[in-house]
Amino acid sequence: MGVPNLFNLPNISKNNRTDINLVEGDIAIPADKNRIAFTQHGPWPNGIVPYELHGYFSASHKTMITNGMKKISELTNNCIRFVDRGSNRVWLNIYPGQGCWSYMGQEHNFDRYTASQVNMFGTAYDYASIMHYRTDAFSRNGQPTIQAIYPGYEGWDAQMGRGSDLSAQDLVKLKKYYNCP
Question: Residue 93's CB: how many other CB atoms inside 10 A?
């Protein structure tokens, strides 16, 4: 069993808000933080991810989300663990809202990366990644903006950005990022 499909939650839609500044289409920047992105430097310390689920989720949706977290913990042999926020000053805030974007991580100046920095895990390109954008991401007219170009991946266009589970490569990268055994 894979990670539960969280994309069917109510009130989650394409990035269609116009009152939010977005970097790379899915990282929200508060208006008072002009040109500053919010990303975390490195993994969560010791693989412990404090989180808080917003009260507007139904009990069944909360269960679905926490089951997904439990599955990630299981797949990483508890190398990554999700814990209630408690008194932590930095945490993952999960709430239902419009769009598929987030305020995330810790504040710092936005960085650009070279091609050699992007694939820091030494893995093949992963069209099946749960993190992959759909082929029509950022399109103004619904036409494709992303195409599968590697030989043997023709036909993947219909599947990109539609995953409901971690791909095998997602799990490999997650474990490498957190130095999991």
Answer: 13
Ranges of beta strands (E only) in the chain are: 21-23, 27-29, 37-38, 48-53, 81-84, 92-94, 107-108
- Side-chain half-sphere of 65: how many Cα atoms within 13 Å? 22
| Contact indicator for 170, 177 with CB cutoff of 8 Å | no
Closest CA to 13 of 96, 102, 99: 99
The SS3 of residue 58 is coil
Q: Where are the domains of the chain?
A: 10-112, 115-181
- Average model confidence (pLDDT) across the chain: 75
- How does residue 118 score in pLDDT terms, banded at 50, 70 and 90? low
Residue 63 above 60 pLDDT?
Answer: yes
Q: What is the pTM of this model?
A: 0.67
